[in-house]
Amino acid sequence: MASDLPPLSEVVSHIVDAVDRAPLVDEPFWHLELSGVFPDALYRAMRTAMPEAREYRALKGRNNVNVKADGSSTRVKIDLYPEYIRHLPGEKRAVWSLVGEALRAEPVKDVFMRRLAPGLGRRFGPDYMGTGMFPVPMLTRDVAGYEIPPHTDTRWKGITIQFYLPEDESITHVGTRFDRRRPEGGFELAQRMSFAPNTGYAFAVGPDTWHSVDKLGPEVATRDSILHTYFVDNTPMLAFRNRGKRVGNFLLNEFRHLAG
Question: Terminus-to-terminus CA distance in the chain, angstroms?
């Protein structure tokens, strides 16, 4: 499998092209609607290289919202950094190493920032392209019972991106909701992303970027995706926080493997 993978430069160029041609939609907030994100051959390799359930770590969420009564989590993750995926079998490690390295590449960050100019400019001002952004690509898996109510993401985040990784189009209905806040209170569905292979979305985090996921039903075996977040990284304190979290997550990952 590893010998069939495209070179890093080709993957980066492909992602940049996909972001460049993605429609920029202004309702209910500025966002990109992505398709054909990864080269076809790489996407097939990603599906083949999906990790086993035991290779993920629980993503418990705020106040353990993703933890079920039996202690299992409805959302699990693998951070796509070399130190986190080093325990994967060789062929799987080669695939996810390539994907993680491509998503952390500067040209990918630059094209997302350039295309998301309306939202970033509103938040950071006309010099938004100079705002430091720290990339955190994370392979996630959601199972039946997962849900998250309308929220706008923490202000630690500058850009939120999700790449959908299903095998086929059998669960297109479980895509992320983009919500609109009603004047009288509560939320209404403005748009739902289709959970289709090799697609996704991206937006600059702002006060109106309400989004959610309806509770996944028993028809969903796994809802696989990559959450690719750019954390704001423009002060020494934020830089320390971002890198400290990376170290802390690495240690938690190592302790889990030692205990297992």
Answer: 28
